[in-house]
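Project standup — Tuesday

K.O.: blocked on the structure for the chain from last sprint. Re-posting the sequence here as requested.
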Amino acid sequence: MGKYRAHIKKNWYCFLLGPVFMTLEASGEFILPFINANIIDRGAANGDISYILQNGFYMLLIAAAMLVFGVLGAFFAVRGAARMAAGVRMDTFSHIQTFSFSDIDRFSTGSLITRVTNDITQIQTFTQTLLRGFFRSPVMLIGALIMSFRLDSGIGMVILIILPFLALATFLIIKTASPRYTAMQEQIDTLNTGIGETITNEKVIKSFVREEYEKKKFRGVNDALRRKTVAALKMMILMQPVSALAINLTTLLVVWIAGRQIMVGGMEIGSLTAFITYLSQVLTALNFLANIFLQGTRAAASDRRISQVLETRPDIRDGEESGEKGKVESGSIEFQNVSFRYFKGTGAPVLDHVSVKIRAGEFVGIIGSTGSGKSTLISLIPRLYDPDEGAVFVDGRNVKEFPLRELRESIAVVLQKNTLFSGTIEENLRWGNENATEEEMTRACRIAQADGFIRSFPEGYQTEIGQGGGNLSGGQRQRLCIARALLKKPKILILDDSTSAVDTATDAAIRRAFRTELAGLTKLIIAQRISSVMDADKILVLDQGAVCACGTHEELIRSCRAYQEIYYSQKEGDAHE
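H.V.: unblocked you, prediction finished:
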């Protein structure tokens, strides 16, 4: 309950007034049949019109009050549940923002989306039902039982006899339903993950003409969800006929007993009518309580899944090592004997005892074959991952000693996947600095060679970007991402193969701008093309997770076989074009 307590406390009046008004509304449920019985047995039987009108007026007032109380109770129940769910959803989303890449990988994106949306909606629905019925139903149940015994204690015992059997049936249904709801929610995770992957990669699917394959794959996942949903929900469906059977059998038994008493004058027609109404109320209240418990079973499964997220301690966080606040000042970097595995304790390391020093302001190129550990290496600097062994230093301080926010504010990373968001070009650029002036945005775009194509659009910097930047070319997206990173005014700039989609002339223009405009900035550039890093102060050559060589282009072309192979293969490829 800890994750809900603060939000319940903030909206305490909803959680108080909702049940109070629903309880008041329920009180009228067992008063009305009693008055109605008196109208039949005393008013109608004796032809007393004034008695009928007077009690009818009382019934009208009670019904009107029940209407007001019911509306108010429902309003506060809905309001309280919605506000509590919104608060928990915000807490969960905020906590996910602290997750490292490995934390997100452990849950999967689709699962996290389901937990923030569907699972919290289940909690909201259950809370709303709880506020409306958990107090109302017992009041109606107890009140109807008391009134039944007041009318006839012998017939009232009939109801008490049926209650244990109905309670046992409800318990068995809930016990069976609980694991099925958990399985259903997990299958929703799988469905959401598949949908997200398919929609995101729609262009690839179409280019390979794999629509039928994706539809077949989705049909399998969708059918699995259907089966698990039916398996879970049919337990709730079973609850209705079980309750109806109990109501019908008890009603028949009551009518049979009461009918005999009416024949000998031991009970009046109005009392029998009231008794049947009370019987219906008792069993309806029991049925409602059973449904609350069934919803609670599904909500409990969702609650466990939400708790798994909120109770996860991020792998990377500000800890005891975090020292005084302060951004990176110079931008020097050192890797000391760094090793890293994505799958801990298994397989070969992605990085194997890497030791490198990079001076502040240097332009460093990183070259290597696919899977050599280039992207992993630069991900350790802003602590997107932490090394398994060794340490990474920035400005001579272990990166773990920096508060995460201060460290990442000082480092700009343009990852391999160029992510842009729906909105204008200007809005996307302001991710780098929301307070950037027009002059600062223009300068960053000029350095990234983006200003020209932006101004070619009719709307210029106010041009709307589609989701993911789908209405821009790959090279345009890359240049916008570089400009956005530059607006951070970082001390360290990291480009992870971020000019692969631009032509060689534009690539050269970007590098020249880096030399002249960003002279004091430490720049690390991962590249597939040697031409992108030939003029670097030094080039790191990675092979199977280790730095096999380090030097300038001229030094490496003379002494490093791996570098020579890459260079001559690219030169030969250029010659054939």
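K.O.: great, moving the ticket to review. The mean pLDDT is 83. The radius of gyration is 35 Å.
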